[in-house]
Structure formats: structure tokens, C-alpha cells
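Hi, here's the filled form for the chain we discussed.

Project: internal
Contact: R.S.
Residues: 459
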Amino acid sequence: MLAPGVIGDLQRRVGSANVLTAEEDLITYSFDGTAALRQMPGCVVFASTTQEVREVLQFANAAKIPVVTRGSGTGLSGGSVPSPDCIVLCTVKMCRILELDRANLTMLVEPGVTTLQIADAAAAAGLFYPPDPGSMKISTIGGNVAENSGGLRGLKYGITRNYVMGLEVVLPDGEIMWTGNKCVKDVAGYSLKDLFIGSEGTLGVITQVLLKLIPKPAAKKTMVATFSQMDHAAEAVSAIIAAHIIPCTLEFLDRTTIHCVEDYAKIGLPLDCEALLLMETDGHPAAVADEAARMEQICRAQGCLEVRVARDEAEGNKLASARRSAFSALARVAPTTILEDATVPRSELAAMIRFVAAIARKYRLRIGTFGHMGDGNLHPTFLTDERNKEEMHRVEEAFKEIFDEAIRLGGTITGEHGVGLAKKSFLPKFLGGPQMRVTRELRRVLDPNGILNPGKMFD
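And the returned structure, exactly as it came back:
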């Protein structure tokens, strides 16, 4: 626990009501969305303004007290799991949309605004914010930026980094820095905003985000194709990309995931298949019709069992919900659900899917696999029980082999969840010596006292 003098100092800065110290309150902030990772913080501080963030960091830096920034706690790599006796700096009360600039197609928001609120505000103005992580209903934009989140539409529209035009960041010593602007083209100096995107709270605390918006697509069509073999689904994805078709969404669910989703959500998914592809195309109505027809043709050529085309937007949204509910559906099956992400070049998808299936057999584990197959990002999801130490050891060994294979195939250890605590042991092998050295030196320069999110990414 933090000393009473420390708590009193924090209370004077943000108000007594915004500092939590009771054990029953702290338990809520002792974990994030990652399974089997927990640590009690020293206290939780809610900041409502940039100035309050500044004052907390100035105090913590001078006293050398660790600070872990947190939004909604939906992360899946342990990025916002507290370090011992740290200050959890929660930004959910910084939740205002400050500006929607239709002339420049931008939106300025505070870090506690949810991704869904941003998407809805853009849609109300006839505009579109594409990034759509699976937790978009509750995940906050500050966390999205810190983790460089992806989503179902990443194949066509990119990830969070592609929509951040500027950031207000409070550095570990309390200095406030703005980087970026509303200009579409700006090459003056280093692109410092890109340094903070995906930095997982290790370099500064994000207090404002300037986002790029785009015009809303005029039309959309949703389809589901089923396959008797997972390989065939993977090969269909490769064939679609090879045909120079870039759909809005190209998602994959294996048999285990399909059955769990149908049992959970009663969507009406076909159960007599080994794999399913959810495909969405959007844009000009003529282009949408053409792409949908070509994708259906490619799937049939790859031996699909059936192609179901949504009759209208309501049915399309219902089919899309199958993918969005995958994690929740799988989480009902076993006491512990470990959702991972490994990304490989799209040409290696079939090989990676075969490898995950072989690993499941080798270690006698139940794994449901789904993911953003169009951009090579798979989510092998382990259905296990963290109380079973022997089984958890097998899970850890399986992880090692899956990430080693992803690297061997030219892929990466994480496509969108981040490194955090869960994957920091794999980072040196992926980055190599020179990149690790530069990464460590950057962190040391910006945070010489090492107060921000210590122990995350690397020790």
C-alpha cells in the first residue's frame, strides 16, 4: 500500500472522491481483459483534465512512484495490469468529444471517449471512422491509440495509427506536448505522434487525440461462405487477395468457434461445416455488386459448400455479429479463455492454420481459432482452466511454438493486442538486437526514472 502522505498528496491534486484506496475498489482495477494476470495497485486516481494528469505525473516522477495508465481495461496482453504499489491513472472521466470539424474531416476527442461513441458521432455527421476493435462498445480511444488497435475493417481501411493526425501527450515529468495537426501532408521533423501510437503507456499519457474521418461508403453487402476444410477457406482468402479484391471485412471462424457462437447468439449459422468466411464489401453500389459476385465465384471455385448473401443491412449486421461475439461465446465454454493473436503473411495462412491445429493435438488442448484472415491476423483462443497448473504449462509451451512458427513464416507475435506482460519474453527474438537496443534507449530518454508502466514490453 502507498503511504498515507502519498494518498493525501494525490487527493489534494484531484479531489478525495477521485482517489480509491479500499481493497474492494482496487480489486476491480487489478486486472484487464487478459486471463490469469492480476496485481493489486497501491491506489486508483481518476483524472478529469490534462492539468490533473500533469500534476499526478509531476508528483509521481519526483517520488519515483510507478504509474500505470488505464481506460476501460479491455486490453488482451496485460498492458494495463498494475505493477506492485503503483498509481493506476484512470482516464475514463476525460470523455468529451471536443470538436467535429466537417471542413477538415477531423474529430478531436479526450482519451476516455469510447470507440463506438466516436463512430456514432461521425455517422451522425455523414462521416465514417473505420477502426472497429472487437471491444469497440466499451474500449476507449486512449487505449486504442496506446495499443494501436485493429479491428474487422483493418484489411481495407487500416488500423488506429492510420487515423491519428495529432496527439496531446503528458510526458513522465509532467511536460505537456502536442504533436501533429490537421494537415494531410506534414513532413516537418520526426513523426513523434507515431512514437506514442502503440507505445502501451510506456512513454507518456495521451490526453487528446485528433482523428481523421472519411466519407461514409454509399453501399455495403455482407456474405457468409462455408467450407468443409479450414485449408479451403484459407486458400479462398489468398485467392480473393490475389484477384486484387480488397473487401471491407474478410473474417474466419473455425468449427469450434461457429458452434460456440451459435449456441450463444442463435444467429442461424450453418453447423455442418469446418470453417466459415464472413465477407463484406463496401463503396459505390456498382463496385459493391461486382466485388460481391467475384468473391462468391472465387469461394465456389475453392470448393465452398454454400454462399449466403444478406438480403438487407439488418441481416448483414446479424451475420457480422457472429464474428463480433466470437470471444464472448468462447469465454462461456471453459473457466479460463486465453485469446491470442499471431499474424503471418496472407500467403502463409493455410500453413499457419494447419500448424495451430497440429499444436492443439500435440498438447491435448482445445483451441478455437478465428480472426481477421484478410490481413493474416489469427486469434487462436485457448479454452482452459488456470487452476490446472499442468494444463497451463502445456498452454505456455503451445504459445511458444505458435509464436516461433509465426516468426519463421515471416509474421509477427502480435497483430493488434500489443506486447504488454503476456508477450514480452517473445519480443527480443522478434525484434533482434539493434531494434531492442534502440527501443530501450528511446524509453530511457523519455522516462529516465522508469515510472510509466514498468515491466511492460520488456524489463
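Let me know if anything looks off before we file it.
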